[in-house]
Amino acid sequence: MIAYVRGVLSTIQDESVIIDVNGIGYEVICPNPYRFQAHMDEEVFVHTYYYVREDAHILYGFQTNDEKHLFTKLISVSGIGPKSALGILSAVDVSAFVAAVEREDEKYLVQFPGIGKKTARQIILDLKGKLDSALSITAAKPEKLTEASYLDDALEALKALGFSDKEIKNIIPELQKEDKQNTDQLIRTALSLLQKT
Fold first, then answer.
1. 105 phi, psi to nearest 5 deg
2. Which CATH fold would you assign to the domain 65-134?
């Protein structure tokens, strides 16, 4: 399982990005590749899901772990393949989608390409009550998001990348000076700081 790819963003295509990792270009299919436009020729960190079937091995990529989690849950639903799941993720806020599933809002779900009433009902049946607890940003409690929440998310991501508590603790004072409303930006700043130590 390839959990993430970290490397230099070298190319953006209609359905994918290519990330150069030590001279090897990984093509990663994304919900909306142009979200990465601001980071051309810079180091990026992309959460990935390695999808294997008889005729293809495909790497799907996401900006956040929540997007990746929702993707894996969606493709477990009968009638939804990776293409439909990407279509949903390219057009939706994760927390809004989770909220729609929890309130059994079929009208919201059928607005996505390839999702009819039958599939919408299947999504609700299979996923209701199973999304909130695993997401770091839940639809049920958006008002509780604080600067500390974004910073905590960034620190957890650094631990997942294998950095020690001591290394992370050393850069916290610098991170606290940054805009703490954007987890992805905090992670990028942290990686830059850690490379200098």
1. -90, 85
2. DNA polymerase; domain 1 (1.10.150)
Q: What is the pLDDT of residues 30-78, one digit of tens each?
A: 998 998 888 999 999 999 999 998 888 999 999 998 999 999 999 999 9
Q: Quote the Cα angle for 113-85-91, to 5°.
A: 60
The yes-or-no answer to whether 4-62 and 65-134 have a common fold is no
Distance from C-alpha of 154 to C-alpha of 14, rounded to nearest angstrom: 29
The yes or no reply on domain 4-62 and CATH 1.10.290.10 is: no
Distance CA 163, CA 2 (A): 18
The pLDDT of residue 138 is 41
Q: Where are the beta strands (DSSP E) in 13-168?
A: 16-21, 24-29, 43-53, 56-62
State the Cα–Cα distance between residues 158 and 191, nearest whole angstrom: 8
Q: Which of 71-75, 82-86, 131-135, 162-166 has the lowest mean pLDDT?
A: 131-135
Residue 180 predicted with pLDDT over 80: no
Output the CA torsion sign for 104, 110, 111, 112. Answer: positive
Residue whose entry in the numeric block shows the structure tokens 């590749």: 33
| Domain residue limits, the chain | 4-62, 65-134, 146-196
pLDDT digits (tens, 9 = 90+) for 138-150: 443 333 344 556 6
Reduced DSSP (H G I as helix, E B as strand, rest coil) percent helix, strand, coil of the chain, to 5: 50, 20, 30
